[in-house]
Design brief:
- This protein has 377 residues and is mainly β.
- It folds into two domains: 112 residues, Immunoglobulin-like, CATH 2.60.40; 219 residues, Thrombin, subunit H (Beta Barrel).
- 10% of the residues lie in helices and 39% in strands.
- The protein has four helices and 23 strands.
- It has an eight-stranded antiparallel beta sheet, with no helix packed on it. Strands 4-10-9-6-7 form a five-stranded mixed beta sheet, with no helix packed on it.
- Strand 20 and strand 21 form a beta hairpin.
């Protein structure tokens, strides 16, 4: 008996080992529920969309002999590359062998058809494909704009470095003789801004730059006799233009400003304090008329104007100055200021040669309120 029994037992064991588990079914869905010994997927489907779906659950069931089994789940990406491996060691006392795997979805995973391959005891046992749609990541929200730091006030040494943008404006008579001197500044390429009285009554006008170059103007681009400003066309060479203050800039009452005065035929920096009116304090030389008024940041906010009586400066130069002299009449009223830039609606073309006309009053003008400017004559 034993001689026959042992071979029979060995033969039965070999047949049982050779009988691989037979797949009965596989189900895939977003959620699985366990009830006793039964595992179900209520809403089976094979397409998933992140982030609406957060996981994939795949269930397998085999017909297998009662035994111990080693199961391995191999997750593959749409391109066939290995994503992960998860192992399960289990023993079934019946012929029902069942297992399920859960795979978490993420925004960083590639979209497409994924696949779970299952191996039992190292042999292929099942495979289940499913499709995952992952929307393209939204563009990152740009950070809120950072407000630029407020500008720092310049020192007087820094402001004095702006002097290469300041020019002399010479009035010439028909013979080419200079009979009056005023100031101006480079406001753009090929453009000089000054007071209108700086050119009033001149047969020709010459501009002298900080580097010693002298050039005649080629035209008057725009002017206003009443508001006492003029924009001259001239070759400015390499002279840098001054930067105007932004339109939103307001002048606080009591703010200290800076302008270039003239002392002993040389330019000097002078301070100015504003109150309800706009007279210059301390008073400046008439030769500084037409120069820029600067805020603490070196930006142009005004033009130095002259007398408040039309024609006074021109008459002073004609009657009180000896031939060949540009010395101002000491009886001339002290200069005042007008705001820069001039209102564009008041800028009108003007011929190059301006006939003698009464000098306009010195005014403090705001670009947005011409009426208020007129009241400050």
């Amino acid at each position: 008996m034993r001689q026959h029994l042992i071979p029979c037992l060995l033969l039965a064991s070999s047949l049982a080992f050779a009988q691989a588990p037979q797949l009965l079914r596989s189900v895939v869905g977003p959620l699985g529920v366990t009830e006793g010994d039964t595992f179900t997927i209520p809403n089976p489907r094979s397409k998933f969309t992140y982030p609406t779906d957060r996981q994939v659950v795949i269930y397998f069931e085999w017909d297998a002999s009662p035994a111990k089994y080693q199961l391995a789940g191999v997750w593959k990406q749409p391109d066939g590359k290995l994503a992960s491996i998860s192992d399960i060691a289990m023993e079934t006392p019946t012929r029902k062998l069942q297992a399920y795997w859960t795979f978490d979805l993420a925004a960083c995973m590639p979209g497409g058809v994924w696949q779970l391959d299952v191996r039992i005891n190292g042999l292929p046992a099942a495979s289940q494909a499913f499709e995952v749609a992952v929307p393209a990541p939204a563009a990152p929200t740009p950070p809120p704009p950072v407000a630029p730091p407020p500008p720092s006030a310049l020192t007087l040494d820094q402001i004095y470095r702006l002097a290469p943008s300041i020019v002399w404006v010479y009035k010439l008579d028909a013979t080419g003789r200079r009979f009056d001197t005023a100031s101006g500044f480079v406001s753009g390429k090929g453009e000089i801004t000054t007071a209108f009285q700086s050119i009033d009554g001149a047969a020709n006008v010459e501009v002298a730059f900080a580097d010693g170059q002298r050039r005649p103007i080629t035209g008057v681009r725009a002017h206003s006799r009443l508001q006492d400003w003029a924009v001259l066309t001239v070759d400015t060479g390499s002279a840098p233009p001054l930067k105007p203050a932004p339109p939103t800039y307001t002048v606080p009452i009591g703010e200290r400003m800076v302008h270039f005065s003239v002392e002993n035929d040389a330019r000097a920096i002078a301070g100015i304090a504003f109150g309800d009116r706009w007279p210059l304090q301390p008073p400046t030389s008439p030769a500084a008329v037409g120069g820029p008024l600067l805020n603490p940041f070196g930006e142009v906010i005004g033009i130095i104007g002259g007398s408040t009586t039309p024609g006074v400066r021109a008459l002073d130069r004609a009657n009180a100055s000896p031939p060949g002299s540009s010395t101002p009449n000491p009886a001339s009223p002290p200069p005042r200021c007008l705001l820069y830039p001039p209102p564009p609606q008041r800028r009108s073309p003007s011929p190059t040669s301006t006939p003698p006309m009464p000098s306009p009053p010195t005014t403090c003008l705001t670009p947005t309120s011409p009426a208020a400017a007129s009241s400050a004559k």
